[in-house]
Amino acid sequence: MPAHGLPADRVLAEVRALRTADRATHGGRLFAYVYDPAVPGLDELAAAAHAASAHVNGLDPTAFPSLLAMENALVGAAARLLGGGPGTTAPDVVGSVTSGGTESLILAVKAARDARPDVAAPRLLVPVTAHAAFAKAAHYLRLDLDTVPVSPRTLRSDPADVAAAIRPETVLVACSAPSYAHGVVDPVEAVAAVAARRGVRCHVDACFGGWTLPYLRRLGAPVPPFDFGVDGVTSISVDLHKYAYAPKGVSVLLHRDAALRAPQYFAFAGWPGYTMVNPVISSTRSGGPIAAAYATLRHLGDDGYLALAERTRAAVAGLADAVRGVDGLRLLAEPESTVVCFTGTDPTLDLFTLVDELTARGWHTQPQFRYGDLPASVHLTVTAAVAPTVPAFGPDLADAVAAARAAGPVRLPADLLALVGTLTPDALTPDLLAALATGLGLGGGAGGAGAVLPERMATVNTLLDAAPPALRERLLAGFVGLLQRPTY
To answer: Where is the signal peptide (predicted)?
Structure first.
């Protein structure tokens, strides 16, 4: 904080200068984290709507009815898209607007847990491919997390395994539509039926694909049933800041009826101030993201989303063809949503080096580590903005593969591999963590703008891939902690 305030234009210039180090959020070359429809004028519209409601507080809908109206409209749009509302088999769907998919999933777990006060040690059941936010929910809310395996061939769980894993203490069974890692839709119909027979709620995590799957189905894609048209589905989450193309962060959590949603609320009157009543985790909430999402949906409309889904589907097909055309790569799953995920078949081709080579050519992809029988892979989240870039991706992919082969696999020192194989998370001292980070090129700055990141991450990713999951968690938390230091 400066001793004297700075002029507005200088402050904005500082922000713009800091942003030059970031990945480009537009242009169709970033395959993770942001969702770009490449619709002219949409950013400006969303920014204007955000500014108009940025200082509105969602804490009290009676004070700010505009925000309540926009939230109800967003929930109604999501419910209608996902098989609920008047004239459907789920006419009484209700919902809440949250800050993102993680909050939606935490609240779905909370509602299921609090609906069963008779269960002293509640449990949550998910496939191993379920989003990590379920593990976060279980950790925060003190549930035991049970997982079922998926087939290495189909990347889906077997409903029989789900049935066998349900215990008397299981309060929620979840599945994905689709899974983030591979873009595969779980067998929702069968899983929901199993859960219903056992009297257990079933949540469908459609945060990632819930806004595209209905449109892909209308375009002729063989999308399996996954929404409120499926008996036994009790709640669904869908992120508007993903394929509804709204700015961060807006998600919707839907319940089949108000009774199922009721345990989601928190209310407290045991103090001399106002009675706190919250449908979501936050109390104070800026109306900016909600207004931006409202403006985005109103501007794009149903026909706009259908056209964006068609453009995205074509981009997925083109990227998948590019992968098929390169010797040494294979699709981990045939694309059925908006994800292209591939792995390697050539031991001389290091996937993490390939990711670095693609980055050097202007493509930001997402490496994924080995898990059980599932190999390391490269994940591409595909948006409508990618469509014009597809012709350039194939040649760059082939060139990057050739460069990765020439570089050869990453070879970690034998003593470092031995250390990773024997080190327990509790033995990872601050000094050892700092030494590892320095050796890998992480840290080295005072934090903030002074933090140092290596230009290439293959060595870091190879080390993390070799580490057992519990150690990997501790390593990554430590590395991020080294980067997040105050700037003075």
So the answer is: none
CA atoms of 232 and 18, how far apart (whole Å): 48
By residue count, the chain amounts to: 488
Tokens of 326: 């390169």
- For residue 348, the SS3 value is coil
283-341, pLDDT tens digit by residue? Answer: 999 999 999 999 999 999 999 999 999 999 999 999 999 999 999 999 999 999 999 99
The verdict on 311 and 279 lying in the same domain is: no
Residue type, 118: D
pTM exceeding the 0.85 threshold for the entire prediction: yes
What letter does residue 130 receive in the DSSP assignment?
A: S
| Sequence-ordered alpha helix ranges (H) in 346-486 | 351-360, 390-407, 414-422, 430-440, 458-466, 469-483
Asked if residue 24 is part of any domain, the answer here is no
Which residues form the domain of 247? 49-296
Query: 78: closest CA among 219, 242, 188, 189?
Result: 242
Q: Does residue 474 sit in the same domain as residue 424?
A: yes
215 touches 306 (CB < 8 A): yes
CA pair distance 302, 349, nearest whole angstrom = 43
The pLDDT value given to residue 352: 97
Which residue has tokens 């794009």? 300
Closest CA to 291 of 39, 105, 76, 68: 68
Strand-pairing partners, residue 175, are 204
CA angle (462, 407, 483) in 5-degree steps:
40
